[in-house]
């Protein structure tokens, strides 16, 4: 198949993780931008990117790039495109606009101009016009304008890819699925040890960890993708991708999620069951202050309250407790903490080995790693212990990794702005090759480009869209909710009980059917 340019959108701070995913997927010409990664691939790669990537929000297929100094310029350039090859008769479409420009202050006005140009072209050529559909269009378009540079793309994803399809209910301020997956991949964990989330909320980290441990495609739960409505959709090819579980692997360890709130516990259990992962994940009600040393080697990833969207009494005492529990009950293991306030990290009282800036919604957060060891740093190193890997040292040495005098209270102008990819750094390679050929021939229009390299319902519950298998897989083998080991999981494999009586981190049984 012929290769073409593609853009994968993501959150600020996840670009390197997404780039690594794309490289491992087999994408070509992978380049990191700001809130996006550009790459090239064929139709199969586009389908796989939507279906298999854990850290992408949306996959765009650019179809035109042009200069526009006014709304009239946008109208004229859009009207030059032959829309009959993208929008078939009787089909609906929608337009999403992202604008960073002094010339275009209103993205909605840009949306209207693009719609008008397309409708007018159809009316002039056929006497009929396609309809606009905001809720469920057949074709989704995305136009991105940075100053006077406009990029028009087909949106191949449709609903944001973070909406996996397994979440039945959520708690207040739930962690975004894409961010959760990105955090786990940043740790380097792929199922080699047990995984613990002691403040699990609706269970997002635990579920995303299980998908990564099994190397399961997160798109398996989704009902549809936008590209399935395109005129050139290859149903046979996508069914092959959808039903291929040859790269999945066994997970021989276990994932534990705990929360002090019983409502959150019940919500997490419901979501875990919807994902078919009850054999791999145990959820129970317990307070982190009762945390005791796990019996098996483990990694701990936690997203505590920040005191922003969720009010927490004695916030700093909560973080002090986290540090105390890690220091006394997690020796020999690795912990990762996502938080927002500098004073919260200081209250933990432990020295991190790496700090990674990421955004959680509009909050400029840090994801910090803590290597928990007994005794002094000198003794730990003499015994062969590694606090920072070579890659972590390289990352921490990068210039401008953090803004000088970083302001933790800073906000983006709008919560949703971070979810919109900034594709100013995108380069149309095919157009560049065309330009080079034209230049050699002595002519041809020049496509200017911005070289900015800065980081920049379900209707049913069966999940059985593609075959006779529950939860959406089309293979004929009998596969129940759980992936991996059989049988009921006992609660306390990961913890030694050092208390008499009471609930919490002890060996209480967990009922998968609860």
Low-confidence stretches: 399-421, 439-514
Give the number of helices: 13
Globular, elongated, flat, extended or rod-shaped: what is the shape?
elongated
DSSP strand tally: 15
How confident is the prediction overall: mean pLDDT? 79
Helix and strand composition category: alpha/beta
Instruction: Evaluate the radius of gyration.
Output: 25 Å
Strand content: 15-25%
- Summarize the biggest pleated sheet: 8 strands, mixed
Terminal residue distance: 49 Å
Order of helices and strands: EHEEHEHEHEEEHEHHEHEEHEHEEHHH
Give the strand line-up of the largest sheet. 2-3-1-4-8-7-5-6
Query: What level of helicity do the residues show?
Result: 25-40%
Topology, pairings included?
Elements: E1 4-9, H1 15-25, E2 28-32, E3 36-41, H2 43-52, E4 58-67, H3 71-80, E5 92-100, H4 107-126, E6 131-132, E7 139-146, E8 149-155, H5 177-187, E9 194-197, H6 204-214, H7 235-242, E10 255-259, H8 262-274, E11 281-285, E12 298-302, H9 315-329, E13 334-339, H10 342-348, E14 354-360, E15 363-371, H11 377-382, H12 390-397, H13 429-441
Parallel strand pairs: 5-6, 5-7, 9-10, 9-12, 10-11, 12-13
Antiparallel strand pairs: 1-3, 1-4, 2-3, 4-8, 7-8, 13-15, 14-15
Helix pairs in contact: 2-7, 3-4, 5-6, 9-10
Written overview of the protein:
Helices cover 28% and strands 18% of the residues. It has 514 residues and is an alpha/beta fold. An 8-stranded mixed β-sheet has the order 2-3-1-4-8-7-5-6. A 7-stranded mixed β-sheet has the order 11-10-9-12-13-15-14, sandwiched between helices. Strand 12 (298-302), helix 9 (315-329) and strand 13 form a beta-alpha-beta unit. The protein starts with a strand and ends in a 73-residue tail after the last helix. The relative contact order is 0.14.
């Amino acid at each position: 198949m012929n290769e073409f340019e593609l853009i994968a959108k993501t959150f600020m701070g996840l670009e390197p993780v997404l780039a690594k995913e794309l490289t491992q997927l087999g994408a070509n010409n992978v380049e990191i931008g700001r809130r996006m990664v550009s790459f090239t691939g064929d139709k199969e790669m586009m389908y796989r990117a939507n279906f298999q990537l854990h850290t992408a929000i949306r996959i765009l297929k650019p179809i035109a790039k042009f200069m526009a100094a006014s709304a009239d310029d946008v109208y004229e350039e859009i009207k030059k495109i032959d829309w009959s090859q993208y929008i078939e008769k009787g089909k609906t479409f929608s337009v999403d606009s992202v604008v960073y420009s002094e010339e275009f202050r209103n993205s909605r006005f840009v949306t209207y101009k693009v719609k008008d140009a397309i409708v007018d072209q159809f009316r002039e050529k056929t006497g009929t016009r396609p309809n606009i559909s905001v809720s469920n269009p057949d074709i989704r378009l995305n136009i991105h304008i940075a100053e006077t540079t406009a990029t028009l793309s087909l949106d191949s994803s449709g609903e944001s890819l973070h909406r996996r399809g397994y979440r039945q209910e959520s708690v207040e301020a739930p962690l975004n699925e894409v961010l959760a997956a990105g955090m786990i991949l940043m740790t380097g964990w792929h199922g080699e040890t047990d995984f613990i989330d002691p403040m699990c909320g609706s269970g997002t980290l635990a579920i995303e960890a299980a998908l990564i441990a099994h190397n399961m495609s997160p798109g398996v739960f989704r009902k549809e993708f936008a590209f399935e409505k395109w005129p050139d959709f290859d149903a046979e090819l996508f069914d092959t991708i959808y039903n291929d579980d040859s790269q999945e692997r066994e997970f021989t360890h276990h994932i534990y999620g705990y929360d002090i709130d019983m409502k959150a516990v019940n919500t997490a259990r419901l979501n875990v069951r919807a994902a078919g992962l009850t054999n791999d994940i145990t959820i129970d009600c317990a307070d982190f202050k009762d945390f005791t040393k796990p019996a098996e080697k483990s990694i701990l990833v936690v997203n505590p309250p920040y005191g922003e969207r969720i009010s927490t009494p004695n916030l700093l005492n909560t973080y002090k407790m986290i540090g105390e529990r890690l220091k006394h009950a997690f020796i020999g293991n690795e912990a990762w903490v996502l938080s927002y306030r500098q004073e919260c990290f200081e209250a933990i009282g432990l020295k991190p080995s790496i700090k990674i800036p990421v955004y959680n919604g509009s909050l400029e957060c840090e994801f910090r790693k803590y290597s928990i060891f007994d005794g002094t740093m000198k003794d730990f190193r003499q015994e062969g212990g590694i606090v920072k890997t070579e890659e972590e040292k390289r990352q921490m040495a990068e210039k401008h990794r953090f803004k000088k005098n970083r302001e933790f209270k800073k906000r983006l102008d709008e919560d949703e702005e971070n979810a919109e990819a900034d594709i100013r750094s995108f380069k149309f390679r095919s157009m560049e090759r065309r330009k080079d050929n034209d230049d050699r021939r002595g002519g041809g229009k020049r496509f200017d480009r911005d070289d900015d390299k800065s980081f920049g319902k379900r209707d049913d519950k069966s999940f059985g869209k593609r075959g006779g298998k529950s939860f959406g897989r089309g293979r004929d083998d009998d596969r129940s909710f759980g992936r991996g080991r059989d049988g009921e999981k006992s609660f306390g494999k990961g913890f030694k009980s050092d208390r008499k009586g009471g609930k919490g981190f002890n060996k209480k049984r967990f009922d998968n059917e609860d």
